[in-house]
Structure formats: C-alpha cells, structure tokens
Amino acid sequence: MAGKKDQFMPIVNALRLPLKQKEMDIEKNWLQDPKKLMKKIMCVWIPANGTLLDMMVRQLPSPLEAQHYRVTNLYSGPLDTLEAAAVAKCDASGPMSVYVAKMVPFGQRRYAFGRVFSGTIKESENVRILGPDYEHNTKRDLYVKKVGSIGWIGARGYTYKPESIHDCPAGNLCTILDLDNFMLHSGTLTDSDEFYPFRNTSYSTARAAVVQVAIDSKSPADLPRLVQGLKRLSQLEPSARVYVDTSGQHWIYT
Fold first, then answer.
1. pLDDT single digits (tens) 174-183
2. What is the DSSP string of 226-253?
3. pTM, whole model, 2 decimals?
4. Euclidean distance between CA atoms 219 and 131, whole angstroms
5. Quick one: fold of 205-253?
6. Domain positions in the chain
7. Which candidate, 92, 84, 97, places its Cα nearest to that of 64?
8. What is the pLDDT of residues 30-77, one digit of tens each?
9. Burial of 40 (C-beta count, 10 Å sphere; 0-12/13-18/19+)
10. Which superfamily does 62-190 belong to?
11. Looking at beta carbons, which pairs linking 200-204 to residues 24 or more positions away fall under 8 Å?
C-alpha cells in the first residue's frame, strides 16, 4: 500500500474529504501507518455507522413490539405466568430478567453483555444467576449474588467503553460487572424465584465437536490452575466448550 500513495492522494484531494487538522498531515500519517490512514479516509468518505443505525431504527421492531411475538421462542417456562407476561409486554415494572448473551473482555476486566427483557436491573442488586444447566426449582447451576456496576456502551472513536449508569430498564442493552466467576458464556439474571431461564443462543460451530481432547494436570496440586485456565479459555473463545464427564475427566471440544 505504501507504494501506491501517489495513486491515492489525488483521489483524496479531489473528494475534498472533511479530515481533521491532525489527519491532514498526509505525509506523516502515511509513513507511520498507511493502513490506519486509509481506514480513516474510507470511514469519512463512506460512513457506515449512520447508515446502519438509520436502517436499524427504521427496519427493526422495537422491544415493545418484538417481544410480544418472540416470547414463545425466548422464554422456556409456561406462558401463563406473571413472569412471561412481563417479558411479552417488555414491562419495566415487572419481575426483572436479563439475558446475558456473552462475556466481553475489556482491559483487565470482563463484562457481561446482555439485554433487559423485563423489570429494571439496578446497581448492587442481589440477583439469581441461572446458568445453561439450571433446572427449575433446583439449585443446579444457580447462584445468588450481588451484581456490580451497570454500564452502557457508547462509541468513542474506534473503542467502546462502558459508561456507568445506576439502573437499566426493560428494552435496553447493558453491561454488568462481577459475574466472571459465575457465568462462562451466557445465562439468565432475574430477581424472581419463579422465573425460568431464557433459551440459550448457540453457535453453529459448537453444535457438533470437530476436535475433542482430554486434558489432565501433571500434578494433582495443579488441578485448580487447570480448571481456572479452562474456564478462561471458554470465556475467551466462543467456539470452545469445556466439560467434565462422570469420571472427573476434563474435556475440550471445538
């Protein structure tokens, strides 16, 4: 790309792109990072962010409309309950429920990224964490913990940094801290003892294992470190799955 500078610069000048003053130093920026400069030029020339946002606003139904007919596919419990009705109506005053779609690494921390389907999740609130193996009216894969700060992700250039908010009502996306130790990929948060978990979304690559490997620690003393490492791998790589069979053997499949 560096050798094609003389071909690109006349085009940039002819388009009269509204570049900032520091970006106008073409010679300096080109020598430092030509790919970054070209990416910026293309973003200014053909901005996709506004187009995509406008398309989503115009074409995608609002949560108030969509949840009414999607509740049968989203909610795994009976539909004639107060909890199901709150999800269908996107009721911010009903029982709180959040579906966490993924765990997002950001610096040294890890955020749970999810959508509030009913009620309002609040900072430092005690919630029931329903994992993918949770069974109703049992304690399997169930945790009751206090969530950390609630955040809203806003774009700042090419980075996305959660901005702290006190609460988040139904129909919105948010980030949640302090769920790292209780949730690997996805799950359900709620404040109701009668709430059933949301149905988990799944990656097509994870439906059938292509490679399956048994993992052991060299020393029994290293087993906790192995478990922690496998847990971190599962968080960072969505296509990787870790499980323990009935004999206690750890497996990775992807």
1. 999 888 888 8
2. HHHHHHHHHHH-TT-EEEE-TTS-EEEE
3. 0.70
4. 30
5. Alpha-Beta Plaits (3.30.70)
6. 2-50, 62-190, 205-253
7. 92
8. 556 677 777 777 777 888 878 888 898 899 999 999 999 999 999 999
9. middle
10. Translation factors (2.40.30.10)
11. 200/132, 201/101, 203/238, 203/239
